[in-house]
């Protein structure tokens, strides 16, 4: 009888695995995970089930869980190459190249004639060699100079100013000096100094570069970013035109100055009768960002936005996204608030496409400039003293106060532990208490943790992003936590809606608006990502 039951469990487990495979093919990864889990409960000694569930976790960016499942597959069958393969892929996605290399070396040993394993091992070896080279030539943090401070956007261009105005100014200055001599019969030291200053200043202005005459895109006249400029720039981007580097530098450098003056936790006042819109991850999906503005209006003092991190990576229009958001910040700082996400970091940008896209559309210097400016982004916001907005989530300890967040020294790459890391990486969980992170970074926190944090800080609601949701949002923790995600049909494959939340003062009740993806040019997500990561996508 026992043998019969065991055979029945094995057969049922296989049926569940087949159902899970179908769900996976339909991009229903959460459902696939649930079905693989049921199969594992019936037969935990099948390495395939563990490896398949690891793959589904990878698709949901739950790399910590993927590594655990792949390790279990290896424990069940140490000769099962797919276990090492899935774990290596998860390590790669986390930027842990040396750990990934060990697993792909084992895949190669187990499958020496597999060309796919050979190709992936070679790419992983290249990545590790590149890291070692970068480490060898890297400058200590204490000795690094600001990239931004070495750039003067006024001088960016390919031709000297052709105007004869400086020459005319110099001639006028000389004529004025001659008249002074004719009238007074002498030249004082002061007059000579003014004369020399005028002449040198005129030639200094004339030495400034201007953009090429054939450039037909948006132009910033003088120092001020205007709404007309931003509209023209967005229309150019929509038509896949590029912005001149001179103006891109100006936008990023001016944004840097604005962000530099902000605290790590920014308070946003919303007067009675006014509103603010909170958006989640947009991940380089520029055409969906345009749709948000179409549905909800452009950012302005009367229609402010808070974008809650992860502006870049994955989608292949990240440069267009970041320049648009930064341009609105320059135009009117109170029209748009920007928070840092876990993807506003060097380690993520190297892997998930932003770094490659910046090199392709702008230049190498912009890679370093964006990395520097991302370190100036605030970590969290509080709206009207009641709504706490952060990209990831809460903390591994109780008792964290808003003053502790304000005191964080954010001007660095995100660390792998501590308050800053947890703000950017943590996720809610349905169970109370705390648990390990399914991502492998940060932690998972329950409704009791959310409740205590809100009560300790006299807050009503926690809004966070960081996770794709089928409806574009999810309300959890007894209504005290809302996840909002604003990249519909994420990576052109998830089929999810996007959402944003409008809060109107004084009641500050969340009004959630959902929307679907819109068409975009035929440039695939991850088009600029590292070669090895594209292999797995």
Q: What would the keywords be for this entry?
A:
single chain, 537 residues, alpha/beta, five-stranded mixed sheet, 20 helices, EC 3.1.3.16
Explain this structure.
The chain is of the alpha/beta class. Helices cover 48% and strands 11% of the residues. It has 20 helices and 16 strands. It has helices at residues 2-25, 29-42, 47-59, 63-76, 81-93, 97-110, 115-137, 165-184, 189-207, 227-238, 245-260, 286-296, 318-331, 346-352, 354-361, 364-374, 402-406, 419-425, 447-456, 531-535, and strands spanning 159-160, 209-210, 265-268, 275-279, 305-307, 336-338, 380-383, 387-390, 427-428, 434-436, 443-445, 461-464, 473-476, 481-484, 498-504, 510-515. The protein has a six-stranded mixed β-sheet. Strands 6-5-4-15-16 form a five-stranded mixed β-sheet, with helices on one face. Strands 9-11-10 form a three-stranded mixed β-sheet. A hairpin with a 4-residue loop joins strand 13 and strand 14 (481-484). Helix 3 packs parallel to helix 5, helix 8 runs antiparallel to helix 9 and helix 11 (245-260) packs parallel to helix 16 (364-374). It is globular and about 80 Å long. Mean pLDDT is 90; it is low at 161-171 and 198-208.
């Amino acid at each position: 009888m026992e043998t019969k039951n065991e055979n029945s469990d094995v057969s049922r487990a296989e049926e569940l695995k087949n159902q899970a495979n179908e769900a996976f093919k339909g991009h229903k990864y959460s459902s696939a995970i649930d079905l693989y889990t049921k199969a594992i409960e019936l037969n935990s000694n099948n390495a395939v089930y563990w490896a398949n569930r690891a793959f589904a976790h990878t698709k949901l960016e739950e790399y910590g869980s993927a590594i655990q499942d792949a390790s279990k597959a290896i424990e069940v069958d140490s000769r099962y190459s797919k276990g090492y393969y899935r774990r290596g892929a998860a390590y790669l996605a986390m930027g842990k190249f040396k750990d990934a290399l060990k697993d792909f070396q084992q895949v190669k040993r187990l499958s020496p004639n597999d060309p796919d394993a050979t190709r992936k091992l070679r790419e992983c070896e290249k990545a590790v060699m590149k890291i070692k080279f970068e480490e060898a030539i890297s400058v200590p943090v204490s000795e690094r100079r600001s990239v931004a401070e070495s750039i003067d956007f006024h001088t960016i261009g390919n031709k000297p100013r052709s105007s004869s105005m400086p020459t005319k100014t110099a001639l006028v200055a000389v004529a004025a000096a001659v008249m002074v001599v004719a009238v007074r019969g002498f030249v004082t030291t002061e007059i000579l100094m003014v004369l020399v200053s005028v002449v040198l200043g005129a030639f200094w202005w004339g030495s400034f570069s201007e953009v090429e005459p054939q450039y037909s895109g948006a132009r910033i006249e003088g120092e001020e970013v205007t709404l007309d400029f931003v509209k023209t720039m967005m229309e150019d981007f929509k038509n896949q035109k590029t912005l001149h580097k001179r103006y891109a530098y100006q936008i990023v450098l001016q944004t840097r100055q604005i962000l530099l003056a902000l605290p790590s936790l920014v308070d946003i006042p919303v007067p009675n009768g006014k509103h603010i819109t909170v958006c989640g991850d947009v991940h380089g999906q520029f055409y969906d960002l345009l749709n948000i503005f179409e549905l909800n209006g452009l950012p302005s003092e009367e229609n402010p936005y808070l974008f809650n991190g992860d502006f870049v990576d994955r989608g292949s229009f990240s440069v267009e996204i970041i320049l648009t958001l930064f341009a609105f910040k320059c135009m009117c700082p109170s029209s748009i608030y920007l928070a840092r996400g876990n993807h506003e970091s060097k380690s993520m940008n190297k892997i998930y496409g932003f770094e490659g896209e910046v090199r392709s559309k702008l230049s190498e210097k912009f890679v370093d400039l964006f990395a520097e400016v991302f370190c100036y982004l605030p970590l969290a916001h509080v709206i009207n003293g009641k709504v706490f907005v952060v990209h990831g989530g809460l903390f591994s300890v109780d008792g964290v106060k808003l003053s502790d967040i304000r005191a964080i020294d954010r001007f660095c790459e995100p660390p792998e532990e501590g308050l800053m890391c947890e703000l950017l990486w943590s996720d809610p969980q349905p169970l109370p208490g705390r648990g390990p992170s399914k991502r492998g970074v940060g932690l998972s926190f329950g409704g009791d943790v959310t409740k205590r944090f809100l009560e300790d800080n006299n807050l009503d609601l926690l809004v966070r992003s960081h996770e794709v949701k089928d409806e574009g949002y999810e309300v959890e923790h007894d209504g005290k936590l809302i996840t909002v995600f604003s990249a519909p049909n994420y990576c052109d494959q998830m089929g999810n809606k996007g959402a944003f939340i409008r809060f109107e003062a004084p009641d500050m009740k969340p009004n959630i608006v959902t929307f679907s993806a819109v068409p975009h040019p035929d440039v695939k997500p991850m088009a600029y990502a590292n070669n090895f990561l594209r292999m797995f996508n």
